[in-house]
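Case study B.
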Amino acid sequence: MSVSTGQAGNTDQQAASSTAAETSSEVVIETRGLTKVYRDFWGRQKVRALKALDLQVYRGEIFGLLGPNGSGKSTTIKLLLGLLFPTSGQAIVFGRDATDVENKQRVGYLPEESYLYRFLNAEETLDFYGRLFNMPAKQRRARVAELIELVGLGWAKRRQLKEYSKGMARRIGLAQALINDPELVLLDEPTTGLDPIGTRQMKDLILELKARGKTVLMCSHLLADVQDVCDRIAILHQGELKELGRVDTLLTVQDVTQIRARGLPKEAEDEIRAVIARHGGELLAMEHPTTTLEELFLHIVREAEAHPGRRATGLARPAEKAPAAQ
Amino acid sequence: MVIEREILPYLEWLLFGPQGVGALFVFIFLVAIVALLAIAGSYLVASIRYGPVEGFYSVAQTIADGVPDLVRLSPRRVAAMAYLAIKESIRRKVLVAFVVFAVLLLYAGWFLDVKSDHPARLYLSFVVTATNYLVLLLALFLSTFSLPNDIKNRTIYTIVTKPVRASEIILGRTLGFVVVGSILLAAMGLFSYGFVVRNLSHQHQLDADPEEILAALERDGFWEGQTTLDRLHRHTVRIDKSQLETLGAVTTEIERGHWHTVRLVQEGQRRRFVLSGPQGDLQARVPIYGKLRFLSRSGGPGTGVNVGNEWTYRQYIEGGTLAAAIWTFDGITPEKFPDGLPLELNIRIFRTHKGDIEKGVMGTLLVKCPDRGRRIHSSTPRNFYAREFVIDRQLIPRKLEAIDSETSTVTEVDLFDLVDNGKIEVWLQCAERGQYFGMAQADVYLRAANRPFWLNFVKGYLGIWLQMVLIIAFGVAASTFLSGPIGMISTLGAVILGFSSQFVVGVMEGAIQSNPVLNPIFGTMINEERAVPGGGPIESLIRLVTQKNVMIDLDLPKAAELTVKSLDAVLMAAMMAITRMMPDFRYFHTADYLAYGYNIGGDLIAQQVTVALGYVLVLTVAGYFCLKVREVGT
Ligand SMILES: Nc1ncnc2c1ncn2[C@@H]1O[C@H](COP(=O)(O)OP(=O)(O)O)[C@@H](O)[C@H]1O
Ligand SMILES: [Mg+2]
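Model:
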């Protein structure tokens, strides 16, 4: 997850739009009337977690499942992995039933929490999962080193996972999901437990995966995460599909035009006001933007890394080192 | 004694078995029944869940998928799962078991009876039993808790979403635990061996001045005396000058299951007697068994007597009558037995009066040629004293006195003059009126050779190892659908049923026998000896509550009694069906062979390995399907 991994390390929207065109029409995931009812030991119905979900995910896109807690996101992902069996309907991955062992060769999965063996260290963990893919020793060693580097855990690779913080466990969880260089990556709440840098790196990585032609299905209740990276989203609520579509079309407000500029003198602003008034438009706002806390935080951390010991300069002040804010 | 069960040659056992049905066919039959039941059961469940057609399809699909999954295994993935199981075992501190064992041995020295008549038996039984239970307990814990923990902690998520087959998960786990168990067992075995040898080893001196002994040898040609008292015993020694000179050594009398050899060594000017360490206590005898038949008290062919609450396995012959026990041994050649026939007798005694307790009961022993047409076909009888629980050794020498049937005189013959086509008969009779000798086929045998004891020790531990493998396979299979504690109890139940299968069958037969409806139908199939009176679980409970012993009537209304008895018969039949599925764990318990110094034969080991393999195979397949159809994501 080092920032250097991607050309996609620019601003998110740019990357997303530049690669959006690569999405093909090949269906990777398809659900047909997928329904899941959790039952208790006696077969009595407990929860209807998913109700007749119809979805298609295409090769090369980043698909987001959005919804409040308990809306059936994890259930959907588990059904797609064959961890759960559908009560009715079908979950089809790569044209086969979700439980087919062949699929698992091409899929990577990051569970909701890092369910890993706490008595193994990072290297042993990845090596173990590599063996499960029947990787020869040499290839495995190279891949393990590469992934530990990628998720930035080189300094802790000999420590047992029980000593890991939640964010570190999350990173190693991601590494195990990528061990087989999967075509399809299923990420269940990928950013929970990560610090802002980790969150940004995770998002960059997801975009990077897309850039390399992978398909990503992620679920989250953090709207910002989904908005930043996803091409298309589905919104679930209590197991029902409420909305499905492209993020950009869903979020564009058609009757509002936004103009942003830098280095404009005061007089120019007045002129613009006049132009809007002349065309009969209504000026909603003209102001100096504030940045997000995330941007500020990231800026400060990068500054601190570049110049250890110095107090970082604010982002809003016109400093030449600051990256173009928005 | 030890071998109360005849060990058939391997192929005979596999193809024909003791009742004409070979183990292989029993196995195939049982597997077919279990498989059919399992398929029918899963179809029932599937058709309730998905409807009859879809249900059929899903069951068929699961079975069809199973074949490649069970055949195309990746060694690397199995090894990875095994490695995980090993790591997990180490984390769960299995080594504690070894520490417990070591402590047990350290303190055992205080508790084991030092005055025992057979210290070797005592020590061997102790170490083997201790190892057995510890290892089995460990195997039980490891195997039944592992998979349920994985499911509970959801670590299974990251496993089953990789291209791992359920069969690889099962096999890998089994393999990993077997490796851990084997290492522990090997360590315990080495420790035990050292423990036994160290505790048995001791030295004696001759309890006299060497000069005196040498003088006596010069004067009388022999010396008789005792060794010093060490480890609470001493041996009587008779040194024969001629024997010492020809053989270089003499042996002491046997005491506490061992003897020592005595040598004369020259040390500069002085000569002294040196005694070896204990010999003969750790051995592995290879017995050659004969076929046994009995003569009745009037001398005609017949059976022995049953002296009461005894198993028919062993029959009794009455003393002072013509009743005899006759063993026919086959394959007797001068090459095999150049010095004569080394017989070992191990006779039970039933006394109707006290007699001479010290001396034992007198019996006679003679050999006969099976071809009675020969002029000389019988040796003269020789007397011996049978003592209970002692293996009596009798060498039938090459030079024998035999009876010339024409002149009724005694002549001297070679032993092999009485052998016809490799066959010879050994006759045993009890000479004292009112006393009985009890004998079974395995009680008298020819001791052909001694195998190295350590090899026998390894073989004995192989029996424990196989039991461990079985338990691990059971535990892992149970853990695919049961939670940890329940899986453990079920596995334990299976083992106990396996140990007590005879008893379960007996209770069932007893329940049928006392049932007025069922008895006329099945009564003929019942083994009277085995049937246990007192009824099945419900009847026993009633008897327990109403304090009625098993012999008196239940004293309920007729209809109620019949209901209880029929329910019991059904319950017991179900229990027996389960029992029949369980491996007979006594089959693997070879501690007695070790302790009593009998070689564990290749046939027995081959049978053990076959049985274990069969179960592991079936359990792996069963575990595979259980795990495969299990929804692990909840
Ligand atoms: N193993 C289970 N047993 C019973 N109910 C469950 C189980 N797992 C999830 N649920 C229920 O199913 C619904 C959907 O859960 P989930 O898919 O985990 O939601 P989320 O969208 O937060 O990931 C919730 O109401 C939850 O309580
Ligand atoms: Mg969830």
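Residues A 73-74, 112, 188 surround magnesium ion (ligand 2) (CB under 6 Å). The remaining cases will be described in the next quarterly update.
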